[in-house]
Amino acid sequence: MPHGIVQETIPAPSADVFGLLHNYDRRLEWDTLLKEAYLTDGYHTAQTGAVSVCRGKSWLGGFAVKTEYVSFRPPDVAAVKLINRPPFFDTFAATIRHHDLPNGESSIEYTYNFTTRPKWLRLFLHPMLNAIFVLETKKRLRTLRKFFQAGPTQKKA
């Protein structure tokens, strides 16, 4: 099962970063991977039990990933698990941890694991999709950092 951790330092307190990251009305302002992101099943704010749908950009297949928040403790941690069956994914889960740093910045740590389908292609799919996932997650977190570097008007979560 592929798994990993991607980390970034963000020039803002963890409460601000956590608030923006889980604000689906603003998600597309900074997220480089998605063309659509929203909460569904009657949820209007991210919270434990809330269900989100994130649709990737066309060049990544454009498929929708539907996840449920299994943990939500602002401003420290949120975790999700996959609840639909997008192409090639059998399971997926991620935990995002935030920590304040002494200089007013914060660190974000994105821990993930997944399995692919069909099983007979895992030898090929696991390393390929893991490499893509790491690259795209690093890109997303760098863009989140740049979003906060852009100035105080963008920090409102």
**Helix and strand composition category:** alpha+beta
Detail the poorly predicted runs.
none
Please state roughly what percent of the residues sit in beta strands, choosing from under 5%, 5-15%, 15-25%, 25-35%, 35-45% or over 45%: 35-45%
Strands of the largest sheet, in order across it? Answer: 1-7-6-5-4-3-2
Count of strand segments: 7
Distance between the termini: 34 Å
Helix run count: 2
Strand count, sense and barrel status of the largest sheet are:
7 strands, antiparallel
Order of helices and strands: EHEEEEEEH
Shape: globular
Q: Could you explain how this protein is built, in words?
A:
With 157 residues, this protein is α+β, with helices and mostly antiparallel strands. Helices cover 23% and strands 38% of the residues. The chain contains 2 helices and 7 strands; from the N terminus they run βαββββββα. The chain has helices spanning 14-21, 122-149; strands spanning 3-10, 34-40, 51-56, 64-73, 77-82, 89-100, 106-116. Strand 4 (64-73) and strand 5 (77-82) form a beta hairpin. The longest helix is centred in the last third of the chain and has 28 residues, at 122-149.
